[in-house]
Amino acid sequence: MLIINYTLFIKTYQNQSRAQQWLQARKPQSPHYACVLGFTETGLIPGISAAGATPGDRAYTALADAEFLALGAQPHPKYPLPPLTAGVSPALISRAAIARLQMPIHLLDAGLVHAPSVPVTGLNGAPARCLTTGAALPLATVKRLFEAGWAWGEKWAREHQDSYLILSECVVGGTTTALSVLTGLGIEAVGKVNSSHPQCNHAQKAQIVQQGLIQAQLWPIPEKVDPMGLVAAVGDPMQMAAAAIALAISRTTGVLLAGGTQMLAVYALMQRLGTVYGLSWRPENVVVGTTRWVSEDRTGDTPGLAEAIGDVPLLATQLDFTASSYEPLRAYEQGYVKEGVGAGGCAIAVHLHGGWTSTQFLAAIEALIAQTYSPLPRQ
């Protein structure tokens, strides 16, 4: 039997010793997958995101991703995966990993506009207004999201002590709300974040964030900011729920925050929540895992952002689509899409547990594309 050396396919970028220790500790464990779904009107701003070709498409991205993650390729989906400016949904990557590892899947609704077509667990949240209002969410809603996330995380940890959680998100426009939260926490994040565009729209994001913080009377940035109040002002519903889930689970077992900019913002919130509210958690049980399209994106600086937050352990799959016969996958190599619904974290789990090389994983993703888009010509 061929033994695959997972270290060939997972690279550590920041706080490498802790990232390696986390991988070694999790290798004997079985992963579960969770995705926190949410919506912010920030995602409807023209040009803010490429996760859907039009604002109308972007309003349904989370619903389509949830359906595909749960059911895979279906002949007549209620919510088809939305057309993108270029590339194809990262849900294909995550779904291929879920199938390979037969991972239990948990879909959590932190605040959606429409009801999903598959079963989800509600977290007592609500969709967010555009962050430019400076009043994205009621503070009471943010507190409910924290309480529901903490309760769900504690329950999951009690029931799955020999597992770890891949915690992902689906919020269109979420890298911009992440920038707003990071900036509000006093972290130098402008120019370091990523986006689904091949060239990150830093100027647009920075202008929107400053507008929201001014509206919330948080500009200039005060020395001490309540993290819950900050999310209420300029955040989105996923952020507080995911932070609470990860804090609770870290006390018992491992969490892989699966994503780039958005999950780094969640990590920063975890730090601040722990400090402000005296919450005990175990940082050694938490890493951020993404794709190399994010970690090596020259139009951002993900390792630099991880360092600015506080030496966050950052790792990434080395999955490569250069040799793909499908142009929508090769678009990832041109900087489109990059990440979403925990694609990088799921690929890391495949390398760690599934015994697949990147070439084998690519073949599985291509097979799933062929089932999903028929006919889709190879190019």
Features:
alpha/beta, Rossmann fold, 15 helices, 8 strands
Characterize the largest beta sheet: strand count, sense, and whether it forms a barrel.
8 strands, mixed
Our count of domains comes out at: 1
CATH topology: Rossmann fold
* Number of strand segments: 8
Query: Would you identify the regions where 5 or more consecutive residues have pLDDT less than 50?
Result: none
Beta-strand proportion = 5-15%
**Rounded radius of gyration (Å):** 19 Å
Trace the largest sheet across and list its strands. 1-8-7-6-5-2-3-4
Distance between the termini: 34 Å
List the secondary-structure elements in sequence, H or E. Answer: EHEHHHEEHEHHHHEHEHHEHHH
CATH homologous superfamily identity: Nicotinate-nucleotide-dimethylbenzimidazole phosphoribosyltransferase (CobT), large domain
Shape, principal axes of CA atoms: globular
Share in helix: 40-55%
Mean pLDDT: 94
Tally of alpha and pi helices: 15
User: What's the CATH class label?
Assistant: Alpha Beta
CATH architecture descriptor: 3-Layer(aba) Sandwich
Structural class determined from secondary elements: alpha/beta
Report on this structure:
The protein is α/β, with parallel strands linked by helices. The chain has a single domain, classed as Rossmann fold. Helix content is 44%, strand content 12%. The protein has 15 helices and 8 strands. It has an 8-stranded mixed β-sheet. Helix 6 packs across helix 8. The chain starts with 9 loop residues before the first strand and ends in a 7-residue tail after the last helix.
